[in-house]
Amino acid sequence: MKHQLRVMDGTGDTKLIWEEDNEVEVDAARELFNKLRGKGYNAYAVKENGKKGELINKFEPAAEKIILAPPMSGG
Amino acid sequence: MAGYGTITNATDTSATWTIWATNSANTTSNGLTWLVWNGEITSGGSTGTITVDNIPHVHQVVQATVYQSPPPFPSRDERAERRAEALLKAFLTPEQRKQLAEMSAFLVKSETGKTYKISKKKSRNVTLLGQEGQPILGYCAVADVPLADQMLTQKLMLETNEAEFCRLANSFNVRG
Fold it and tell me: Within 13 Å, how many C-alpha atoms sit on residue B153's CB side?
């Protein structure tokens, strides 16, 4: 099963895909996850069709989809 | 382009052109033959100077579709917004997608059970609604991403971390 990391950015979003049994892919996804969390991004484990997401602080290789959203500020 | 010359007798197939100014190849001893080949008399009489339209006439009308230039290639911002909209829609319920299409906004139940309306505009676009659906308080929280990404971020925050959303957003009065 392919898992997705969707990073919101100026292009809409950038997608990173990994498979749980592929150590290299998992490490790459974890590294990006940690890097962006360090920049204040919020991470959500999500499912499609509007099912409620879950705020996560640690990379979960088993998560089907993770969205990384940049920090918001008062407008 | 018109040729011209002098004909002594247009009705006589043996009439001759005495002068051709534009193309000596058209000089012929038989003026009528020249007319059949090259055009028609557009002025002049049976004798004297006449003007000959020697451009072949086109009788066939071609019906062609009007050329329409292709739509401009979407800009980088437009492509980003389309991608963001696709991502947002993937994470909305069918009901929320319908609301978005019909009223450019959708409703979200927060983690504490409150209802918020997220509107399709860049700022001041989140409204806390009362039990009757009346606006109670407005919130403004923005992110440096396309609008649809911002709306998805607001939805996810309200569902999972409402207190943090309300803390960082600027609130404003929406009641008259």
Answer: 32
Instruction: Print burial letters for B149-160: b (CB count within 10 Å at least 16), e (below 16).
Output: bbbbbbbbbbbb
Interchain CB distance below 8 Å, B149 and A12 = yes
pLDDT for residue B60: 56
- Separation in Å, CA of B136 to nearest CA in chain A: 18
Non-local (6+) Cβ contacts of A36 within 8 A are A7, A43, A68
What percent of chain B stands above pLDDT 70?
62
Could you list the pLDDT tens digit for every one of the 75 residues in chain A? 899 999 999 999 999 999 999 999 999 999 999 999 999 999 999 988 888 889 999 999 999 999 999 999 997
Tell me the C-alpha to C-alpha distance, in Å, between residue B151 and each of B47, B102, B104, B159: 87, 16, 11, 12
Please determine, for residue B56, whether its predicted confidence score (pLDDT) is greater than 70: no
The nearest CA of chain B is from the CA of A30 a distance in Å of 21
Residue B52's beta-bridge partner residues? Answer: B3, B41
Domains of chain A (ranges, CATH numbers): 2-69 (3.10.20)
Residue A47 has what pLDDT? Answer: 87
CB contact under 8 A, B142 and A48: no
Q: Which residues of B touch A11 (CB under 8 A)?
A: 76, 79-80, 83
Tokens of B101: 């299409």
- Which of B86, B122, B145 lies nearest to residue A9, judging by beta carbons? B145
Using the Cβ of B121 and the Cβ atoms of chain A, whether some distance falls under 8 Å is answered with no
Nearest residue, CB atoms, B146 vs list A12, A52, A75: A12
